[in-house]
Amino acid sequence: MDFLKYFFRKTSKYCNFKMFGWQHIAILFIGTLGIISMIKRIAVNRKFEKIIGIVLLSQQIILYAWYLLSKYHVLTEGLPLYHCRVAIILMGIGLLFNKSICRKLGSMWGLIGAVFALIYPSGLDPFLFPHITQFSFFIGHLFLLWGSVYCIFIECVKFDKKDFKTAIYFTNIYHVSMFILNHIIGSNYGFMRVSPIGIGNNLHPLVYGFIVIGIFNLLMIFMNVLINRQENSSETVELNLNANAL
Fold this sequence. Notes:
Elements: H1 2-7, H2 22-41, H3 46-70, H4 74-77, H5 83-97, H6 100-119, H7 132-154, H8 161-185, H9 205-245
Helix pairs in contact: 2-7, 3-5, 3-7, 5-6, 5-7, 6-7, 8-9
């Protein structure tokens, strides 16, 4: 009981998670090992999709329940408005309920966000280890990474021009909305007010905001190329297998 109270405590001090310390290296190793195992051993599997979806949505529900019950910065930190939180929800719904557009948006945002967050975990709340927010952060991003890899490299999701246009519209509306919201309530959703790596914080807010939007649009273009190339490679392999069978 005492451990649970400590684990779910609301009194913050500082974050003692050491970047590229043994814990961080272990988490990166687990993430990499999971990717290798998936690509080598897992085919398209509805049961696997449901497991990933359930874990992602459960992680989000537990996290927001803690924010609400602890009343810890609910408005500025506890809303599902960060890139990866949005991607986790989309991916969870997409995999659990087999929603195509959610899988596509979730995997596109998810691969970018999960890789960045796991390598540079600047979004950790200021709590000493162990704490619910730390476990939630890494479990959420690991399963988001694996879900994105599954959709892109195993399921080979198809991303046509209409899908890409929808993704671009969704992404830019999100960033503009977060820019406005952040300056109203003092939050930093989407990192549209303060850079997580400290670069660009001296710029005019509008200039900084346009740069962030531009960078994310370039990343979306890169992801679209990656997904389409993966799809074309999959089709080529399938054609070769069919030809050999004949």
